[in-house]
């Protein structure tokens, strides 16, 4: 037997008992006559004591142990004379009677502490050591707990967990595919699923009624803090449902997770905001509603024959009221201007107006507007003395709204309005069916091509596709899109029409999605579903800045696994077997 107790479970009531613990040496403190060893495992840390008077040899052995050695300790539980209230095991210590070294360790390249001295790259290279740290391990534990609660909830609602294959054909979620060459099918490639979208729809045709899967999805995109090339979805689909049925069931799941994991009981229904309103008031389809600071449109008030050509020529002028920020210094305002002018944001400039203690408004464009006009602005912005009004304008309405959205979030951060321990959930609904792609010069499905248009908008599909809204919805928490889905098309003719609008020739649609359209001719039930991003959700609950921190073995920003050193070149023999030839980059 290696152990009969863990390093996290012994308490005062265990005093006097003989125990065997196994774990890693966190640290050894040689105090002369006494040595203290902190022994660590997944469950906690227990202090072990060695006394030169009772066993000098054993104490010497303890003093020789290095950090991260794996040891087995036998001893008696004793009450500590100086207790440590910060540790769950802080009331006791183990008086060692025997120590066995189970394995030695090199000196680790960084300290295995909550505040480690290891940089990102080093920690990723030695991720198995990084995972020994409390701070990282607890995210992995949280992830497990959430996955278990998801299973519990969905099982309780009659969902079946069904696995779908990884080696499939292309699924159109709007990203690039990762592809896998097939040795047995010369010159042909599998695509890894961007999601199991078509497969879960086929499971509905198959009569499975309620499906879910906690599943890896693969998208070859540029990476950001909330994106990894492979990530995990809680993927769900249901038959015989309308949008409300789906929203109700999955709002229930969100509430279940909040209650079981965070101990937060949410009684009210999640607000539902139309996509139009989300864009109008927050400039984002994933608004952070922990704070207000809604946009106010100011084109009519400030941008018509005002003499200020920037506003007069703009298609959109919009402002936010940063409450209490009139005290911002020139330097802080300059920083904000720099912020909106960053290439990632791309605004040309920032106009501001302060409401002074006496109620007058002082603005950076005073010379174009009378005090009377500025008072109207104050009223429109619902501003009071001490408030700072920030205004952006631009020729492209949506682009300017996005810029203002970035500014709103920045002000939210600066004013401390984005508390990680506060949660604000909502559904964004009524998404447009299509969006125009400048790159592709065609309409693209905003969600994916299987999304059902709103029944009442179907008549204008041909004549005014841009006006068609979809039965699509996203769940948004604190400005993070945690999940999204839609009611699907289950009629092969409507599906064919959709492919046509999206620019697929009948031939191409058949090649790529013939299996689905064919399945729809055999009695497809009305169905719909959604998928949650598990990584995003865990990060949100753990208060993390990057989803990487809740993934056991994540990739870095260049899509590399620095621990495994992947991706890597293939051997020539493997390339030959697959009939692949690598063209050197310069020669391409
Ligand atoms: N397959 C979709 C996605 O990955 C989710 C859904 O529509 O169920 O975003």
Rounded to the nearest angstrom, the radius of gyration is: 30 Å
Q: pLDDT below 50 for ≥5 consecutive residues: which ranges?
A: none
pLDDT averaged residue by residue: 95
Helix content percent band: 25-40%
What hetero molecules are in the model? Answer: aspartic acid
Shape: globular
Structural class: alpha+beta
List the helices and strands and how they pair.
Elements: E1 18-30, E2 34-41, E3 44-51, H1 56-63, E4 70-79, E5 92-103, H2 120-125, H3 127-130, H4 134-156, E6 160-161, E7 179-181, E8 189-191, H5 197-205, E9 210-218, E10 230-239, H6 243-262, E11 272-274, H7 275-282, E12 296-297, H8 299-302, H9 309-312, E13 316-322, H10 330-341, E14 351-355, E15 361-363, H11 371-380, E16 388-394, H12 397-414, E17 425-429, E18 434-437, E19 442-445, E20 472-477, E21 480-487, H13 492-501, H14 506-520, E22 527-533, H15 534-542, H16 572-577
Parallel strand pairs: 3-5, 6-9, 11-17
Antiparallel strand pairs: 1-2, 1-4, 2-3, 4-5, 7-8, 9-10, 10-22, 12-13, 13-16, 14-15, 14-16, 17-20, 18-19, 20-21, 21-22
Bound molecules: aspartic acid (ASP).
């Amino acid at each position: 037997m290696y152990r009969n107790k863990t390093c996290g479970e012994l308490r005062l009531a265990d005093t006097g008992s003989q125990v065997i613990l196994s774990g890693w040496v966190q640290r050894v403190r040689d105090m002369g006559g006494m040595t203290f060893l902190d022994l660590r495992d997944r469950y906690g840390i227990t202090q072990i004591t060695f006394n030169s008077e009772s066993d000098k040899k054993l104490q010497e052995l303890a003093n020789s142990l290095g950090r991260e050695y794996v040891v087995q300790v036998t001893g008696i539980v004793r009450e500590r004379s100086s207790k440590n209230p910060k540790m769950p095991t802080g009331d006791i210590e183990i008086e060692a009677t025997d120590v066995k070294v189970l394995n030695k360790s090199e000196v680790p390249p960084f300290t295995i502490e909550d505040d480690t001295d290891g940089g990102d790259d080093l920690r990723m290279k030695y991720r198995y050591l990084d995972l020994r740290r409390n701070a990282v391990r607890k995210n992995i534990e949280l992830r497990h707990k959430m996955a278990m609660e998801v299973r519990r909830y969905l099982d309780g609602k009659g969902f079946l967990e069904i696995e779908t294959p990884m080696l499939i054909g292309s699924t159109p979620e709007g990203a690039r595919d990762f592809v896998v060459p097939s040795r047995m099918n010369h010159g042909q490639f599998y695509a890894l699923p961007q999601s199991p979208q078509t497969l879960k729809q086929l499971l509905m045709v198959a009569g499975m009624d309620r499906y879910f899967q906690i599943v890896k999805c693969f998208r070859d995109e540029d990476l950001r803090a909330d994106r990894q090339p492979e990530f995990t979805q809680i993927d769900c689909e249901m038959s015989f449902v309308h949008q409300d049925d789906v929203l109700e069931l999955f709002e229930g799941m969100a509430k279940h997770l909040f209650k079981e994991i965070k101990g937060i009981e949410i009684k009210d229904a999640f607000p539902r905001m139309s996509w139009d309103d989300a864009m109008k008031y927050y400039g984002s389809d994933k608004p952070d509603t922990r704070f207000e600071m809604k946009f106010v449109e100011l084109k009519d008030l400030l941008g018509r024959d005002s003499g200020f050509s920037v506003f007069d020529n703009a298609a959109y002028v919009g402002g936010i009221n940063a409450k209490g920020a009139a005290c911002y210094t020139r330097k802080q305002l300059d920083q904000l201007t720099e912020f909106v002018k960053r290439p990632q944001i791309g605004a040309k400039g920032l106009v501001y107006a302060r409401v002074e203690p006496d109620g007058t408004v002082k603005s950076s464009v005073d010379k174009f507007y009378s005090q009377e006009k500025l008072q109207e602005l104050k009223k429109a912005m619902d501003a009071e003395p001490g408030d700072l009004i920030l205004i952006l304008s631009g020729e492209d309405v949506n682009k300017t709204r996005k810029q203002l959205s970035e500014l709103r979030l920045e002000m939210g951060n600066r004013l401390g309005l984005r508390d990680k321990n506060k949660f604000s959930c909502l559904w964004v609904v009524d998404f447009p069916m299509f969006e125009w792609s400048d790159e592709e010069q065609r309409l693209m499905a905003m969600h994916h091509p299987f999304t059902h248009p709103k029944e009442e908008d179907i008549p204008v599909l041909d004549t005014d596709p841009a006006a068609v809204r979809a039965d699509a919805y996203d769940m948004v928490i604190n400005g993070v899109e945690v999940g999204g889905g839609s009611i699907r098309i289950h009629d092969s003719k409507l599906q064919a029409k959709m492919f046509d609008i999206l620019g697929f020739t009948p031939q191409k649609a058949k090649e790529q999605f013939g299996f689905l359209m064919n399945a729809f001719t055999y009695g497809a039930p009305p169905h719909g579903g959604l998928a949650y991003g598990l990584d995003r959700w865990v990060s949100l609950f753990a208060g993390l800045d990057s989803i990487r921190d809740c993934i056991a073995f994540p990739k870095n920003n260049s899509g590399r696994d620095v621990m495994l050193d992947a991706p890597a070149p293939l051997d020539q023999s493997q390339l030959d077997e697959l009939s692949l030839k690598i063209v050197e980059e310069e020669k391409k």
